[in-house]
């Protein structure tokens, strides 16, 4: 009941300020779908958004939380106390999350180290030297490096992870090729990884630019998948001379992805018309 009251109040204030759901979402750096859920009483704004949302809508934080305007405006001291309490609660939640992330990182690091140690012992005991355990070690180091920005980056953790992936994947493939004494692991792996990374980065920027139009973003993603899959097939046939791709399967995949893309674009167009 409280959520419905706050949602109706947010909708009323948004319209009074001549803002669309999309415009309000952009100012708060969230999607218009989140605004829609607030206004329908399906969810409430995150505590970190209460103060900026109240300022954009031109009301006090206490009025926003009560879901109505006060007959008498709250004193500046009262409003300051409320804002400080909200900021403290938000800060406490973030600190708790950081502690959880640190705990996960420590647990994973210790687990990885123990795994490497056990693999070294088993490998040396069985073969008399280090063989397959080096593959395990390289893979765990690669995984740990990818895990690091996800758990330690203050903001933009996905982008930071992509940066790390873009650099470490080629080093990992080179090391793997040297350990296995298979140059193809590095040459073919690097070519496929390069194309895949280009696709992943395009996907990242696609969803970033169309974060308020997810159906359109998915439509673009399906078209992007066609280009990536066909390029990888071509590279595979270039490096592996005896490899022949199945033309029928490729055609079916391309047609399926085109159909899915068209459906997504049609839904995106329908949603856009309905919204405006």
From TrEMBL:
Per its record, how is this protein called by name?
HTH cro/C1-type domain-containing protein
Which PANTHER family does the entry mention? HTH-TYPE TRANSCRIPTIONAL REGULATOR XRE (PTHR46558:SF11), TRACRIPTIONAL REGULATORY PROTEIN-RELATED-RELATED (PTHR46558)
What GO terms are given for molecular function?
DNA binding
- Family annotation (SMART domains): HTH_XRE (SM00530)
Which UniProt keywords are listed?
DNA-binding, Membrane, Transmembrane, Transmembrane helix
Residue ranges of the TM segments? 104-126, 132-150, 162-180, 186-207, 214-232, 252-272
Q: Which organism is it from?
A: Anaerostipes rhamnosivorans
Q: Which SUPFAM superfamilies match?
A: lambda repressor-like DNA-binding domains
In this protein, which residues make up the domain named HTH cro/C1-type?
Answer: 10-64
Would the keyword Amino-acid biosynthesis be found if you checked this record's keyword annotation? Answer: no
One short Pfam family name for this protein?
HTH_3
């Amino acid at each position: 009941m409280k959520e419905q009251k706050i949602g109706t109040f947010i909708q009323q204030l948004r319209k009074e300020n001549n803002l669309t759901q999309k415009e309000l979402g952009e100012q708060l750096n969230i999607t218009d779908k989140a605004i829609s859920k607030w206004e329908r009483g399906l969810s409430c704004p995150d505590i970190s958004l209460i103060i900026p949302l109240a300022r954009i809508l031109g009301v006090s934080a206490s009025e926003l939380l009560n879901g109505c305007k006060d007959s008498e405006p709250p004193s500046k001291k009262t409003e300051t106390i409320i804002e400080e309490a909200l900021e403290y609660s938000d800060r406490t939640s973030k600190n708790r999350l950081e502690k959880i992330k640190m705990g996960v990182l420590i647990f994973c690091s210790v687990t990885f180290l123990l795994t490497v140690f056990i693999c070294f012992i088993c490998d040396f005991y069985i073969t008399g030297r280090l063989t397959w355990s080096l593959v395990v070690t390289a893979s765990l180091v690669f995984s740990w490096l990818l895990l690091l920005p996800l758990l330690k980056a203050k903001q933009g953790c996905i982008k930071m992870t992509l940066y790390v992936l873009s650099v470490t994947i080629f080093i990992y493939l080179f090391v793997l090729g040297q350990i296995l004494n298979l140059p193809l692991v590095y040459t073919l792996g690097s070519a496929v990884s390069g194309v895949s990374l280009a696709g992943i980065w395009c996907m990242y920027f696609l969803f970033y630019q169309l974060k308020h139009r997810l159906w359109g973003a998915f439509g673009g993603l399906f078209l992007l998948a066609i280009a990536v899959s066909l390029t990888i097939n071509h590279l595979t046939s270039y490096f592996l001379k005896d490899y022949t791709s199945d033309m029928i399967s490729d055609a079916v995949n391309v047609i399926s992805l085109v159909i899915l893309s068209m459906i997504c674009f049609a839904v995106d167009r329908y949603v856009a018309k309905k919204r405006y």
